[in-house]
Amino acid sequence: MFKLSRNGKFKFVSTKHNKQIFVTPLITDSHLHILGLGEKLSQPTLEKKKLSEIKSIIEEIVSKRPYKIVLRGWTEEFANPNKYFLDSINREIPIMLVRRCGHFAVVNSKVFESIDFSDSSNYVDFEEGKIKESAIDKFYKTFGPFTDVKNNYETSKKYLKNKGYGFVHSDDLHGIYKDNLPFVHDNEFFVYEKVAIKDYNELSKYYESGYFKEFKCVKIYLDGSLGARTALLLNKYNDFDTYGEKLWEDAELTSVVEFCEDNGLHLAAHAIGDGAIEQILRVFEKVNPKLRHRIIHAIVLRSNQIERIKKNNLIVDIQPQFIESDKVFIEDRLGERVKDAFRFYDLYSSQVPLFISSDAPVEEPDWLRDIKRLREIGIPYNYSLYQLTYGPEIIDNVDRQESMESNALIFQNDPFVEISQPKIYQTEN
């Protein structure tokens, strides 16, 4: 048989029957929200639902007398709910409907009766019941983020293992404490947790509480999403009078980067718009970090930014399925600047290291779909498959080559030439 080695080549290993099979480590999804994925798989989705359908879904849940309702997936192409719509269904139970991107939501009057949004009023439209970014976090901290944390994790794990995933880099500490994370002592499925912070003060509190004795990554959100027009752009949106949302000031962001450098922590920065990219590059060029850090998304990029990303030794974490999903609005948002979107091939050809992920629950994890999409834009199978297996090892330090002894993907044909659905070999611990 042939086993994929850390050097990126298949090495022939003589076996009793000399089977002509190709073996690789299990797949890594380097950016998702594993508890959020479980919630999505366990709850009704609002994707592609009209208002009448959303109303029926909520009414069915209300009949079960829950203490809160959180649903996700709506987009303006199908429905545009607001506070009045939700109030017409129920005013006694706090309800939040999260847009597909996760950066924008609508809530009913009960939420405003329960939460003081005065310190985040810039992110709230009280009349329409629309909230975004840190205001959404206030909902989670007040009412809790999930319906059933343990069930969410087990549901996600089963789903991911059945698709050939064995490792994920996740982001779950939104309204939940580390002691409540159900995967911390799970030895059969590896979760590399990113500790998401909204400011330097929160970073300090996590440090004082011992979070970084267990977790070695800091996650920051520099902007929102293109769909919700909260991604930060250098020029205004083509279809609205806004640049998006700037969530950090340079001085505080600099302190976070310096903290990560001083404490040996990996920084993962959510940055979708070229304005957010410009900010993090400006700070990196000031600090001149020695550690390896990561930009997640980087959907809108200028050419000189690609050069600077490489110069600063950064990894870019891309989501190939966004190419398809964002088609419905991206030209409206960017106009002629759409040529600056999804420059994944340009990053690859510039030798910027790429991680490949789904951002679930925004997208369903499907590495086979993603590897084929990247091949369509010129990124070869051998590069993508290696980055999906061995690539994240440089950050999470889990030995993928050793892991193949008990967990692996088995291809009948050379996947560097023709990619196909492999068999999944997994032993139970």
What does this structure look like?
There is one protein chain. The protein has 429 residues and is α/β, with parallel strands linked by helices. Helix 15 (367-376) packs antiparallel against helix 16. It starts with a strand and ends with a strand. The mean pLDDT is 95. It is built from 18 helices and 19 strands. The protein has 2 domains: 44-143, Diaminopimelate Epimerase, Chain A, domain 1; 149-399, TIM Barrel. The longest helix is centred in the middle third of the chain and has 14 residues, at 149-162. The strands form 4 sheets. A 6-stranded parallel sheet has the order 12-13-14-15-16-17. It comes from Petrotoga olearia. This is Amidohydrolase 3 domain-containing protein. Residues 22-369 form the Amidohydrolase domain.
Anisotropy-based shape: globular
Average pLDDT number: 95
Strand arrangement across the biggest beta sheet = 12-13-14-15-16-17
CATH topology of the largest domain: TIM Barrel
The helix count comes to: 18
Q: Largest sheet, if any?
A: 6 strands, parallel
| Number of DSSP-assigned strands | 19
Classification by helices and strands: alpha/beta
Distance between the termini: 25 Å
CATH superfamily of the largest domain: Metal-dependent hydrolases
Provide the gyration radius in Å. Answer: 22 Å
Number of domains: 2
Q: Please estimate the helix content.
A: 25-40%
Taken as a percent bin, the fraction of beta residues is 15-25%
Low-pLDDT regions: none
Named CATH architecture of the largest domain:
Alpha-Beta Barrel
